[in-house]
Amino acid sequence: MRYETARQHLTQVLGDLRTWEVLNPAGGAVSVRLPDGNILMSATRLAFDRWNVSLRDFIVLAPDGAIVEQTGGLGASGTPMHLDLYRMLPRAGAIVHTHAPYSLAFASLGLPVPTVTNRADMFGEIPCLHADDSTVKAGFLDNPVPLDMPEGMVQRPDVAAVTLLEYRPQLEKVIAPRAAEMERHGLAFTLYRHGAFTVGRQMEETADLMLRLEESARTALLQTQLTGGVIYPNRLYQAEHMASVDAAIPAQVSS
Hints:
By secondary structure, the chain is of the alpha+beta class. The protein contains 8 helices and 8 strands; from the N terminus they run H-E-E-E-E-H-E-H-E-H-H-E-E-H-H-H.
């Protein structure tokens, strides 16, 4: 079995993410770019197994998605997005995808996650990419088109169509132009009604980015309990805005 040290590392990170309650049986995946350029990725169905991970529960892919070594299942349906992100972002070293609850609340409405904590300021924008999964899948099943599906992923063309036909162009337009930001910090985005992605230079950073993202989403939702439904990103806390902020906060909270 190749890349045993990297497998041990990813197993530990997955355990941490489960402990921090950002992984759940709804799905998700992690991957890391290895020194030789290959991609080590968690195998499909791990979520259904409650993220009880062994060293064999990974697949090694070439940058084009060909199988280098398969000791467990295939890559999940999001495999093309991982491969696209590594191709578009040369500094990307690791990717974490989860269905964490607070960022998913924003994604369920197609809303970007606001950066309301200082730990999230590093992200800049946290966009939500949009695709209507059910409509795309139904349309593909009615009128299939050829898809360039990676060898090392679950062979479900209708699911892959959402990524390849809808999300890939959005990654090229929204995420790829931000490649230079990876010299300073990682990136984050969500998928409509699906979940969150963070992209960092190495795995510890990328896992921490997911925690920062979820923390900001959670805090934004808690803000609404204090303000009567209004979210105040950091940029609003300036002198010219303080009067409107104070007016929005109930007297018993601001006193």
